[in-house]
DNA sequence: CAGTGGTCTAGACCACACT
DNA sequence: GTGTGGTCTAGACCACTGC
């Protein structure tokens, strides 16, 4: 009742295990609790698109029957996925696949807030697509996206304005293949977070991301785009975003003007 | 079996309600699960110093008996506290009160990493206390610490050096009363994180914090202390740290040199 | 009302650490 | 071996949603 993905606990050897036995070579016994295996199976269904963002997944009892485990075990698996913001539980209604398209959690990954702390106070951001073209990956972009230098990528440049003032200048790079067909027009036409468009149009959900933050000075071009004087210190926010299966699917570099905004972070 | 803090659940008409019934006036019934109440009780014991940082708390079974609930309910309460990094579970050994003095998690709240990503590669930070004096709280410090302007506070200024180069210039303010007796000498003499000293010497544990990050340029004095040229962009990191009961106990402002380091943040 | 997630219990057994 | 946390089960009941 170990290692084997879904070894049963009551019935006799159910998950038949086609040649997937606990190899005696394994240095680590690699004990994996049942609920972790269930979690992996759920993750797989998310990744495969069986359950799409904003849709409901089967109820806990149904999943318990499907995986041949108790409801409590499914619950623990779902609990963890909900804690990671991949699923959203709603009492009385069901469990839903998290999406970037929700009105309530718009810009889930954007931590820049106005000085008063209330993003609603300045209304929705204005967005301007400056550029969108297919190029070949430079070395650093290729490394970030686990591609080879020279592979086709999409490069997008855009500006976000809050309360009418340009505040964020962003360059982002997407792997060419999964995002085939993405154009400046489609980006400009879409109302709502870019990540929401990725979900509906390309079946790519950004599950988590990592950011590296530095303080920098803008070059002449950046000054003009952001309409700031030279020597205006800016936040450089470099992000790599990952899908369910932890494949990097976007590299992004933002320049944030922090005169009237700040980057918020909670430490636990 | 509601509202009442520890109403029994097995005896007849559990929430006996000694005049504490679900008042019909109440706009919200304010249903609070048992495990949340247990969590609050544990939190109270942490806050009161009954269980000190790095010490073990009673076993789950003992707590279950003490609070007259099942072990599973205690478990859920402890699970949440462990998720918040207030407790640390160690299988086979027990559950321990989290501390800032651990070798493994030193500088839990410091998110600045060297470019190579490995903090161990540059060895332990060098620390220099520049200044430590008692002053009267300015308006902004008072607001951050929920005090009145003019109340006594301790102001500390220090520099952190990584691999010999000054990288962080920090000013921090502490409420005068809880930190009575703190001097530059004691700070300088102590090896280990400042927050660890706060725990052992003043019984103050920083449970969580919030940071506001901006890009700024240093003034002349800051340039000299950090040994950088004017117009070097720096990260301004403003932190407010809170104790168990969410009382703000420190305000801190750091200037980070991000030439060879970056501020790391994970988004979920 | 039925169906969903949320809470609580009680008991069994496993994995790990110390002695 | 004993005691600790960790997993899993089965069943009961509560709270919320929507038909």
Keywords, separated by commas or semicolons:
268 residues; DNA-binding; three-stranded antiparallel beta sheet; Arc Repressor Mutant, subunit A; homodimer; six-stranded antiparallel beta sheet
**Residue share in helix of chain A:** 10-25%
- Span between N and C termini of chain A? 36 Å
Number of alpha- plus pi-helical segments of chain A: 7
Largest interface summary:
A-B, 31 and 31 residues
Structural summary, described in words:
- The structure is a homodimer of 268-residue chains.
- Chain A is α+β, with helices and mostly antiparallel strands.
- Helices cover 24% and strands 30% of the residues of chain A.
- Chain A folds into two domains: 11-97, Orthogonal Bundle (Arc Repressor Mutant, subunit A), CATH 1.10.10.10; 112-263, 3-Layer(aba) Sandwich (Chorismate lyase).
- In chain A, helix 1 (34-47) packs across helix 3 and helix 2 (60-67) crosses helix 3.
- Mean pLDDT of chain A is 90; it is low at 1-27.
- The A-B interface holds A 83-85, 108-109, 111, 208-217, 231, 233-235, 238-239, 256, 258, 262-268 and B 83-85, 108-109, 111, 208-217, 231, 233-235, 238-239, 256, 258, 262-268.
- Chain B binds a DNA duplex (19 and 19 nucleotides) through helix 3.
Give a nutshell description of this structure.
Chain A is an alpha+beta fold.
